[in-house]
Design goal:
Strand content: 15-25%
Order of helices and strands: EHEHEHEHEEHHE
Structural class: alpha/beta
Shape: globular
Distance between the termini: 15 Å
Strand order of the largest sheet: 3-2-1-4-5-7-6
Largest sheet: 7 strands, mixed
CATH architecture: 3-Layer(aba) Sandwich
């Protein structure tokens, strides 16, 4: 059954690169972890292992997942080459599946223009077949933002905290023209308008089972 009922006790968060999770779902992570102290967060990132990027990711996710039981694994797949390393990516995901059964999964969306994001998104349902997966979005040069169908409203405090943590922990990304406060808050404001909130993060859901019987 693919549904979300009641309190969230455990989540899996997936990224192709260090910073994907925080950019795409950092506000939702902050919201979940503040509302559910002690929540289990299993995070898997496919590239950046053994580099300064991994150090950034560990510090950042520790800050985003405050009061959570966080377990982070960062692999060493080459950036931009996931399609050529399909077996390694699949094995990493299957290993994680073997030790987790989350209430919720945050992952890239299946129509992301970046091949690494899209490849990971395609793999998720092959390992987690009966779980609710929220596909996050990442603003970038490719102009691939679409029409999401699921929203998590963010308080102004959470939205500002997300942007502050992104700027604080990912120094290696500050040179990128799209990596700034205006871009992150601007997208959050637009998604907020779409769900009658001040700010929000938006997600793409492929399949969802309702529980209207109570």
């Amino acid at each position: 059954m693919i549904r979300l009922n009641g309190a969230v006790r455990s989540i899996v968060v997936l990224g192709a690169h260090c910073d994907d999770i925080a950019i795409g779902a950092g506000g939702t992570l902050l919201t979940l972890c503040e509302a559910n102290p002690g929540i289990r967060v299993d995070a898997l990132v496919l590239s950046g292992g053994g580099t300064a990027r991994e150090d950034e990711e560990r510090a950042a996710l520790t800050a985003f997942c405050v009061a959570a039981d966080l377990e982070l694994t960062v692999h060493k797949l080459p950036d931009g080459r996931l399609p050529a390393h399909w077996d390694e990516a699949k094995s990493a995901l299957e290993e994680l599946r073997g030790r987790t059964d989350p209430d919720l999964i945050l992952a890239p969306r299946t129509d992301d223009a970046h091949q690494d994001h899209r490849g990971l998104a395609t793999l998720v349902p092959t390992a987690y077949r009966d779980h609710l997966v929220l596909g996050y979005e990442i603003v970038k040069w490719d102009a691939d933002l679409g029409r999401p169908n699921t929203y998590q409203p963010l308080s102004p405090e959470i939205a500002e905290k997300k942007v502050s943590l992104l700027q604080q922990h990912y120094a290696s990304q500050r040179h990128r023209p799209w990596y700034d406060r205006e871009a992150f808050l601007g997208l959050a404001r637009i998604r907020g308008i779409e769900c009658h909130a001040r700010y929000a993060e938006a997600f793409h859901v492929q399949k969802l089972t309702l529980g209207l019987e109570g």
